[in-house]
Amino acid sequence: IDPDGVRVFRLRARAGTTEFRPGVATPTCGYEGAYLGPTLRARRGETVRVEVVNELLQDTTLHWHGMELPGAADGGPHALIPSGGSSWPTWTVAQPAATLWYHPHPHGATTAQVLRGLAGAFLVDDPDGRGSPGLPDEYGVDDVPLLLQDQRLTADGRIDEETRTAIGPLGDVVLVNGVAGGCLPVTTTRVRLRVVNASPARVYALAAADGRDLVLVGTDGGLLAAPVPVRSVRLSPGERAEVVVALTPGERLGLVSLPPDLGLLPQLAGTYGAAGTLPLLELRAAAELRPSPDLPATTAVVPPADAASAGGERRFELSAGRINGRTPDPGRIDLRVPLGATEVWTVTSAHEQPHSFHPHGVRFRVLSVGGAAPPPELAGWKDTVYVPPRTPLRLLVRFDQPADERTPFMYHCHVLWHEDQGMMGQFVVD
Ligand code: C2O
Ligand code: CU
Ligand code: CU
């Protein structure tokens, strides 16, 4: 905290090596360290300034995914930080407690930079705490961010950036906070896991290996109205979930990714990484556990999503490498939205591939999925959403942050290879 009360962070993007395989130094990138970045944390109402230093040998940007901030601080593709350069985005946190994240966004190079490890969590707290009383909130003890990245290493130990499916690279091992097959020691009867899908392409279905329910308490943009027991939580690239897991003393519980339901033709599940069960992490409960408080009956006030409040409606059709038939043009503004407006955005995929839709600078609510009410994992605040084929998603989006032509907001597919291939458009809010 500087003398003016501004919370200041420094993130140096740098190259290094990480030993994923014993004795093999894999070239990776990270912020401050060699892989991933530190968890940043700030409260609503605080002003934040981040000194971003680019010590990479290539240009980068740093985007605050899910943060409601002005376009000038958003770190999208227009905010290029040249190799050797730096930037000092500053903004005031203006949203409720949530698990957000940060990652680079240079046009055409996002997949490679994120895959090498450029990603980190950004936790927003409420002025009086970390969300709701009763939720585990001791960072690193019973409140733990988990960044998921699937990787494939080449025979000589490099990250394989060349082997790609139509949705980009799919790894054969899932790293959780940079570790494959890791374990998390647990010392309390409940643990809150803030799971970030920081993978370029893979969709997960987070679940307990023994089939017990997880308790979903939050999604991308904040806490749900009430905790909901769920068998699994689907997370497409860019999406987050907060789950609470209950453990008994001495117990070991695997967290896995089940084959996610992508709504695709069954014969395509393997092609898009939706076939097998993948181990993520083992939770290892101590022989004696400190009792956690009971879960609260309600966790947040989430107003009903009411389409009647919307001033306009727009349609987004996703197809191979395009949104509404267009490829991105940095000089073209695709949409103009009045500041303070609420709109209905209908997003439809016209073909048989997984997509994940994400607009910058906003949070939204899902009104319907293929005409039906959203399931619990889509019923709260969102900023990114899986888009199944030929199933229109209706989103209620409110635009409270300004963005001009110089640093417009993006909307894009968060399957990073699709984003790099041009499934991206830009909009101003004024
Ligand atoms: Cu997480 Cu435009 O990105
Ligand atoms: Cu974003
Ligand atoms: Cu896509």
TrEMBL record:
Listed EC numbers: 1.16.3.4
Domain Plastocyanin-like positions: 16-127, 313-430
Catalytic activity annotation: 4 Cu(+) + O2 + 4 H(+) = 4 Cu(2+) + 2 H2O
GO BP, one annotated term: cell division
Keyword set includes Metal-binding: yes
Top-rank taxon, per record: Bacteria
Entry keyword set: Capsid protein, Cell cycle, Cell division, Metal-binding, Oxidoreductase, Virion
Top enzyme category: oxidoreductase
Entry GO MF terms: copper ion binding; oxidoreductase activity
Subunit record text: Monomer.
Protein family (similarity comment): Belongs to the multicopper oxidase family.
Protein name: Multicopper oxidase CueO
Species in which this protein is naturally found: Trujillonella endophytica
Taxonomy of the source species: Bacteria, Bacillati, Actinomycetota, Actinomycetes, Geodermatophilales
Residue range from the parent sequence: 83 to 512 of 515
